[in-house]
Amino acid sequence: MLQIIPAWLLELNVIALFIGLAGRGKGARGIMKTSVFYFQTFDALLSNTDVWPVEVLETQRYIGNVFNFRFSGLACEFPRLFTPLGELASLLILPLICILLVWFYFTLGYLVFKIFEYPNLEERRLRLRNTCLQLSVMTLNFTYFPIVKKTASTLAHCGEDNGQRYLREAPWMECEGYDYTILQVLGWLALPLYVIGVPFGLFLPLLHFNKVARRHEMPQQDQESLDSWLGSIYLPYREEFRPYFEIIFLLRRMLIAFALSLINRASSFQTIAVCFVLLVALCLQLSFRPLNDSYQKFPLENTAETLVLLTLHFSFMNVRYAALNPDSSLPIIWMIMSVNVVLLCGMVVSIILLLKKAGNADEMVHEARGHEEHAPVLGDGAREQYGTFEE
Predict the structure, then answer these.
(1) Bridge partner list, 159
(2) Which terminus has fewer CB within 10 Å in the chain: N or C?
(3) What is the pLDDT of residues 178-198, one digit of tens each?
(4) With 70 as the cut, is the pLDDT of residue 93 above it?
């Protein structure tokens, strides 16, 4: 059965499942955000050095396909997508295609409402609009790190060998010719439009103009509407950090991507730069504890974020040591993998606990209200005015 179903299709299903979990369990938003950061950064660590055994590389291929959108199973069918130009172009087009599909779904749903004359048409339209806005925001957030890393790799200084200049990310490609020129054009376009544009041209204005800092002063209906589509970038944080901390989170990812892509892999300065970013993030995390904790007696989300930053810092430092000391690298590599496996198991257990807690809370609310669970967006019957993707 696994040989019949393409691997890339299974990986797409995992992405859909992860996005569905992120939407379904609003109480698990914080740890989902931490998980995505961890997997994307850990995949970048694995692909940055050549010290890993085959078993680790097989795992890394799957993580990269799911979280950094490198669907290597399509390489034989679409080889041009896996050239430097094809990879950057497909990554830049990916969020656009996803957002277009989301709004096609909105148009289709609204037409169904109109044709079949559903009751409460305006309420349904607003719920559907909020769902599509939320999916659009999540798409841009999820694809940010891989696009920044690929853009930085494209714009990185070329290597040189015997007078021949080559792209460091793809040494077989010379830094001249038509493909390289188009690659540079795409890279310089992506830098202001996506790398800088998403955090500072989109998310920051959205947080400012929607008055997230004064959200508690809004009417309850407006709060629910705002939470339903923009909540994924501010609800994971405590009240005082909501207007800006998502931008700091994106800056952290941007700086790590720049350090891994712009600095030569063989240079120890690359590890120093990445670890410096992680240490600054760790200091901010320990000083402010910005995430909303789901449990009063135990700071689950903040503890998970702290452990992720510590583990990534530990991993980057020891991988550099293993690369510089190949004779003693194998025990170090398996020590790194063991620590990361323990962290991964802890995060999976945490997500399950938070989803179970959210499910129990929903059941209690439904019992208190004395009605059945909400119908789907396209279902019959009236619902609350503002639906969310979580529902």
Answers:
(1) 166
(2) N
(3) 999 999 999 999 999 999 999
(4) yes
Write the CB contacts of 245 (distance below 8 Å, at least 6 apart in sequence).
234, 237, 290
The residues, ordered by sequence, that sit 6+ positions from 98 with a Cβ below 8 Å of its Cβ are 135, 139
pLDDT tens digits along 312-325:
999 999 999 999 99
Tokens 């050549």 label which residue?
Answer: 50
Contact assessment for residue 275 and residue 316, using Cβ atoms and an 8 Å cutoff: yes
Contact at 8 Å (CB) between 134 and 229?
Answer: yes
Q: Which amino acid is at 278?
A: L
Q: How far is CA 384 from CA 373, 374, 376, in A?
A: 12, 9, 12
- Two tokens at 249? 């989170």
Q: What are 162's two structure tokens?
A: 């015997």
pTM of the entire predicted model? 0.88
Distance (Å, rounded) from C-alpha 370 to C-alpha 367?
Answer: 5
The residues near 168 (Cβ < 8 Å, ≥ 6 apart) are 153, 156, 157, 158, 159, 264
DSSP-assigned letter for residue 382: -
Q: Are 49 and 148 in contact (CB under 8 A)?
A: no
Rounded CA-CA distance 33/350 in Å is 13
Q: Find, among 318, 323, 364, the residue nearest to 340 by Cα.
A: 318
Q: Which two tokens stand for residue 262?
A: 């712009």
DSSP helix/strand/coil, 161: strand
Radius of gyration of the chain (CA): 22
Please report the sign of the dihedral spanned by the C-alpha atoms of residue 126, residue 384, residue 206, residue 132. negative
Collapse the DSSP code of 172 into the 3-class scheme (helix H, G, I; strand E, B; otherwise coil) and give the result. strand
Please list the alpha-helical segments (H only) found in the chain. 7-24, 29-46, 54-67, 84-115, 121-142, 144-155, 178-190, 204-209, 220-230, 245-262, 268-288, 300-324, 329-369
Long-range contacts of 374-378 (CB under 8 A, 24+ apart): 377/109, 377/124, 377/127, 377/128, 377/131, 378/109, 378/112
Given a contact cutoff of 8 angstroms between Cβ atoms, the answer to whether 56 and 46 are in contact is yes
